[in-house]
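Re: iron/sulfur cluster structure - here you go.
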Amino acid sequence: MSDKFSYQTMTCKSALNKINSFLPYHYDLNIYRGCEHHCVYCFAKYSHRYLEDNNFFDHIYIKENIVEELEKKLSSKNWKRDVINLGGITDSYQPIEKDRKLMPKILKLLIKYKTPAIISTKSSLILRDIELLKKLSEVAGVQIACTITTLDQNLATILEPNASSIKMRIKTIQTLKSSGLTVGWHLMPMIPYITATRNNLKNIFEMASKCQIDYIITGLLNLRGTTRTDFFRFIKTTFPEKYQPLWDLYHQKDKMKEYKRQLFQLLNILEKEYHVSRNYQKYVPKRVEQKQLELF
Ligand code: SF4
């Protein structure tokens, strides 16, 4: 644990949040509130508002009763073993998890109750739980994704200062893949003029292909609320030459429309050139039905 951060425990009323979305899952589970990875583009900072705390990156809240609450939910006869998205708001494998070890307990419950999961992370700590992930994959299904937005370590250190190094994230993907797990690559967010460059995207598709990744998901930087203000402040001081072009892009609809058209054209070319699928939906695990359960 680092001295830079403050850690507090809290209790949750329920382990799962029901989400009504177009996504192929409807339950979210987040062990932690706040995230030590400190990505400059973080979309989740708004979530600290509900705690009346404005330090999302340094004030980490640990849901101390989450394992008990999850078991209550999964053991209920009403639970239909729907897919759970682990860490939709904050990274379940951020540094504090090394000490707290909540993920192994969560994975053991998912295995016990044959409940499939989706996990995305920027941390190699996930490898600690590889045996549990393999077991979950066998009994219910698990889809894992590692987020890598650039292969340039210097740039990654600026953008995602406390995440695992790029080398470690690639190694994580390779290890998970060679263990027979379904592994995707989150190329999100792509930042115009910084990481959404032809060179960077080409390098990433090439590496994803070498890693024999199952799929890649791409997404352009989305700026809302405090993220927008903080991001432009960061650009002004760190990449001053990119400030005006970015500002114009995010304030002129026509410009953005044309930018997106060209970017997605390039992504379509790269997808074909490197044979890396951008269709992640077919890898989302399905609910284990009662009939299948009887086979175990
Ligand atoms: S890993 Fe995700 S939640 Fe954590 S700081 Fe980065 S973007 Fe935010």
